[in-house]
Design a protein that fits this description.
The termini are far apart. Among the domains are: 49 residues, 50s Ribosomal Protein L19e, Chain O, domain 1, CATH 1.10.1650.10; 56 residues, Non-ribosomal Peptide Synthetase Peptidyl Carrier Protein, Chain A. The model has no long low-confidence stretch (mean pLDDT 91). It contains 9 helices and 2 strands, in the order H-E-H-H-E-H-H-H-H-H-H. It has a two-stranded antiparallel ribbon with strand order 1-2. By secondary structure, the chain is mainly alpha-helical.
Length: 165
């Protein structure tokens, strides 16, 4: 019988695709002599006809891509799908902002720069989304004289400190 027919028969017996059937190259003469399904089964038992393992999808490329993403690559405009708000969780952003504002307010209160009544008012304003960030809140406190907030030292003053060291 022809090799193609035997391959098809073996695939049917083993319930795999024809491409996964492999013949032992040294035993081709014996394989061609097989006439019945029983003959093919005996060749399978002998190891003359073998089944190749199922091929999977490798993760090598995916791992390489993930490593690049960990380094901050592949984040440009051309790689983005979805709107700005769709790519970031609004609730997560809110939590980060509120926590940083509350921590800053707590420090100001502990340092005695803002009294309790004003701190309470500012706390509720933070909750009401009145401030965009820390700088915005500090500007509001200074503008409305709710506490003693000094301006940040200028770069020239920082440069003098560096020279002294």
């Amino acid at each position: 019988m022809g090799v193609k027919t035997i391959r098809r028969m073996a695939a049917d017996i083993l319930k795999v695709g024809e491409n996964r059937i492999k013949f032992e190259p040294t035993q081709l003469q014996k394989i061609e002599e097989a006439l019945t399904r029983e003959d093919v089964r005996s060749l399978i038992d002998n190891g003359t006809i073998i089944v190749l393992p199922k091929l999977g999808v490798g993760k090598g490329r995916a791992r390489k891509r993930a490593a690049q993403k960990r380094k901050g690559r592949r984040r440009g405009y051309g790689s983005r799908r979805g709107t700005k708000s769709g790519r970031s969780d609004a609730k997560e952003e809110w939590m980060v902002r509120v926590r940083s504002l509350r921590v800053t307010l707590g420090k100001l209160k502990d340092d005695g720069k803002v009294n309790s009544a004003n701190a309470r008012k500012l706390y509720l304003m933070i909750k009401g989304r009145a401030f965009r960030g820390i700088a915005n809140m500090l500007a509001y406190i200074k503008e409305n004289k709710l506490g003693d907030i000094e301006d940040k030292p200028k770069k020239a003053a920082k440069a003098k400190k560096v020279e002294k060291q």
